[in-house]
Amino acid sequence: MPFKNQLISAVVAGLLPVCASAGKDDNTLVVAFEKPLTTVDRLYSIQREGLILSRLTDDGLFYVNPDSLEFEPLAAESYEWINETTLEVTVRDDVFFHDGSKLTAEDVVYTFEWVLDENSDTSRGPVIQSWLESIEKAGPRTVRFNLRLPYPMALRDMAISIPVRKKGTYEGADGMENAAEDRPLNGIGPYRIKDFSAGREIVIERFDNYYQASPKANPAIETMVFRVIPDQGTQQAELLSGGIDMMMGVPPDVADNISHLPGVERKEGNDIRIGYITLDAAGYSDPDTPFTKLKVRQAINHAINREEITRYLVRGSAEVVPYACHPRQFGCEGDGPVYPYNPEKAKRLLKEAGYPDGFAFKLWAYREKIIAEAVVSDLKEIGLDVDLRFVKLNVFAKVRNDKDMEAFFASYGSGGTADASASTGVHFAAGSARNYTDDEALGETVLAAERTIEVAERKRLYREALNRIAEQAYWVPMFSYSQNYLLSPGLEFPVPKDGVPRFWQASWSDQ
């Protein structure tokens, strides 16, 4: 691997004589996307790239404050909880769609009624339908949300998952699976779609009629281009030759190799994404799997040197996480057991569990192969025969969802949500494909936390859930992630605290 990186550095270094900024001269920003988007409509996309784009082309009623990571009004002027299941939102009167029409309360009602329609097949429809009963117009600029149950993360879902659509946007779609296909995006964000070539690039331009009261108002960069470049070696060459201005999610070794070269600047930042290992405590993959035994799960926790993996492989601002959430998330506090690296104790626990000579199993993974290999190495040190099954994400997801894995290494970004519900709800709620515990009491605690408005009680419930997860060693919490960005010189870019870039904050230094 080092030789390969040195070779890449040598190749791209040869491109330095033609190095020039991709967009500084004409106030354009060119960014590399590693994965293609099949649609620019956030209602029909769950990809990280879709979230990044949507924050430029769309607005929801609320947004995530980039500094506090709390949820604040955006297209909403104000809001009020009438009671635990009734929320009234006043819509701003100075917001315009990209076609020039003004945003109205009717548009908001239409948007959420579309999402509530089971036939609309929106990506987050089932989530919204689980807590929202109905929406109605309650005044000239006021809409009322009638919730099925108390749900403190309603503002989060509105901010991250539901951009506002003009009434009639999906007319004629008839609930088609691809309702957004071939429909020009008519958003209300600070940028509008100029050109979309599926799988190739997306061009957006600044929307001059964007409302001035927005925290996204008056972005400095006029045009942004998102080029799909799956290969990071090609991205590096493009950055150094001036074809792009930014790479995101750059592996530390790659960033080390080229960040010292002329024409490249490096920035590092935090990410709410965490790495973890799930153990099949319920015995879904095999009723006789050793992972149904607590001491085996505890042994796995003690066997992995998370400190060294974090320090030498993840690096940057990454840190070991003690519980099943990111430390920056609300409610991510526990006083349950932690499992320091102790291979001798791990061996004793295996012996006490009835496996003095270890056992064989498959560890599944789809990302960060070098980290998965380090985990395998640690587990082999305590006598386990581990077969690393490193596969593509679609294969991984299918086998995981079929509950056919004894153990798997994965990561989760919580959609940038600074709340423990984004992690515990996905991984430990009853019925979740990622829940390998079969712990009904834990599922009930997680559900109660999600449905409790009172702050102190929510914290107590999350602590109870996180302590239970730790006591039963259902997971091996590994580390938080650190994000590396490589930029063209002169590009000013505030590094996000949650790993989700906010490009409306970017600018060229001479502007």
Automatic annotation (TrEMBL):
Keywords: Peptide transport, Protein transport, Transport. The keyword Electron transport does not apply. Residues 70-423 form the Solute-binding protein family domain. One of its GO terms (molecular function) is peptide transmembrane transporter activity. This is Substrate-binding protein, ABC-type oligopeptide transporter. GO terms for biological process: peptide transport; protein transport. It comes from Marinobacter adhaerens (strain DSM 23420 / HP15). CDD domains: PBP2_NikA_DppA_OppA_like_10. GO terms for cellular component: ATP-binding cassette (ABC) transporter complex; outer membrane-bounded periplasmic space. It comes from the Bacteria.
